[in-house]
Structure formats: C-alpha cells, structure tokens
From TrEMBL:
CDD domains: TMR_SDR_a. This is NAD(P)-dependent oxidoreductase. It comes from the Bacteria. Coiled coil: none annotated. Gene3D superfamilies: NAD(P)-binding Rossmann-like Domain, UDP-galactose 4-epimerase, domain 1. Residues 2-241 form the NmrA-like domain. Pfam families: NmrA.
C-alpha cells in the first residue's frame, strides 16, 4: 500500500495519475482533508482517508496498513514543521516502512527562507529511524507562469530575481519522479536534487512570452520590498507576497538553479521546456 498526503492538491493529483499507470488503484491511499474533493479518486478505486496534518491520531489511523508514504510538504508555510512532525510520528506508530518527502532544492545550502522548515523536516526524518528518500524539488514553472496573464496585459513582468537562473520544471515532471521513487526499490537513503534541464532568467521568460504571444513584454527588476509591496497591492496575502519576494532574492543568489539533470535522469525523459510550458499556457 502506498499513501500520498495532500492527494487532492495540484502535485498530489499528478502523482496519483502517474501511480495509476503502474500500480493498481487498490494499492493507493489518498490522505486528504476534504474527502468531497477526492470523489474522482474514489470512483477510480483509490482508498480515500480523511486526516488533517494537525491531527496525529487521525493520521495514524489513515496510515494503517500502509507500507510506503509520500509526504507532500504542507502548503501552510510557517506551520510546516509541527504538521510534518505529526505525520512522521504517525507513520512510525503505524509501522510505515519507507517515506519520501518533497523538500526544497539544495535545502541544506539554500538562501531561500523556505528552506528552514524543510531542513527541520529532513532532520525529523533522519531521527525517525524510518528509511526515507528526499525529493528536493526545485521551483515549479507554474509558479512564475501564474503571473504571465497580467504581464501580457500590462506589457511588464515584475520580479526581484535579477539575472539569477531558474532551473524550473513542471509539477508533472516532479510528480513523475515521485511516482517512480514510490514504486521502485532502492531509493532509501537517497537525496535527489531535482530541477529542470535548462535554467532561464526572468528576462528570458519575458522574451519567450513576447515571442509566442506577439505582445511586447519586458522584465522589470524590483528590490525585495518593492516587489513584495507590488504583490500585496494586487491582493496577495502578506505572508505569501513576502515569501515570493524572498524566493526571488534567493533565485538571484543561485538558489533555484541546478544543472545536474537528476530529474530528467530519474524520469527517463527531458524535463518540460520553458517554451513548451508557455505554449501550453497560451
């Protein structure tokens, strides 16, 4: 039995779709906060179990009979460490034999503030005694493409990453890697630094948007505080805006770049290019 937390999230849905290509639905357990959102998974034969990261008892019950667990990191930045502690303790109580965790690219040396809770979680896993693998995911291409419609409308893509290279990949790429790790033996003890094959700058993203849309888009680099303020002015919550601005500054320092091609090696194909992602978006 393979369990996936956050199974109705964007990454989780991709992971389960991949797992269904090689594993029987009856082998899969989707751990979700809201079972109503998982109706489609139930219809496919996936076992849907309700549990919240904040409820260790419910998590322990949801993990009964599970051999392998994929912990997709919580989306609640600032609450991740205690939430992940609950799921790891529940896994130990339930007798889970292997855990894979979606961490952050080069978490141990990353300049991004996001790395702190990932490092805490990695230490919890090391202390748990359960065999585990770290899937240190780089940035999702979708994180930046979410800003593309506004950039196309106004002709300006704003950010604070300077000329820092971003080796992003799509959620589908990272999900394919996670599915492989969950269905094969031999991954315990491994640390995978996962990123796209080809890095790009935000200036290059603006140029790609221009090329494919026919609308002129330029990149405007802002300071961290100005970028965070701009994000807040269009309605982003303060915490999210500050996190995104910090991450751009981290990208400027090389925190979102890796050229090891570990991800494409693991999934057996090239990662999705920026050009193809922009094409899909348009």
């Amino acid at each position: 039995m393979i369990a996936i937390t956050g199974a109705t999230g964007q990454l989780g849905q991709h992971v389960i779709a991949n797992l269904l290509n090689t594993a029987a639905a009856a082998q899969l357990v989707a751990i979700v906060r809201n079972p109503a959102k998982a109706a489609a998974l139930s219809q496919q034969g996936v076992s849907v179990r309700q549990a919240d990261y904040g409820d260790e008892t419910a998590l322990t019950q949801a993990l009964q009979g599970v051999e392998k667990l994929l912990i997709i990191s919580s989306s609640e930045v600032g609450q991740r460490a205690p939430q992940h502690r609950n799921i790891i303790k529940a896994a130990k109580t339930a007798g889970v034999k292997f855990i894979a965790y979606t961490s952050l690219l080069h978490a141990d040396t990353s300049p991004l503030g996001l790395a702190v809770e990932h490092i805490e979680t990695e230490k919890m896993l090391a202390d748990s005694g359960i065999p585990y693998a770290l899937l240190r995911n780089g940035w999702y291409t979708e994180n930046y493409l979410a800003s593309a419609p506004a950039a196309l409308e106004h002709g300006v893509f704003i950010g604070a990453a300077g000329e820092g290279k971003i080796a992003s990949a799509t959620r589908a790429d990272y999900a394919a890697a996670a599915a492989r790790v969950m269905t094969e033996d031999g991954h315990a003890g491994k640390v995978y630094e996962l990123a796209g094959d080809n890095g790009w700058t935000l200036s290059e993203l603006a140029a790609e948007l221009t090329k494919q849309s026919g609308k002129n888009v330029v990149y405007q680099n802002l300071g961290q505080a100005d970028f965070a303020a701009a994000l807040k002015s269009v309605g982003l919550p303060a915490g999210l805006a500050d996190m995104l601005a910090d991450s751009d500054i981290g990208a400027a320092k090389g925190g979102l770049f890796d050229d090891s091609h570990t991800l494409s090696t693991l999934i057996g194909r090239p990662t999705t290019s920026l050009a193809d992602s922009v094409k899909d978006l348009l």
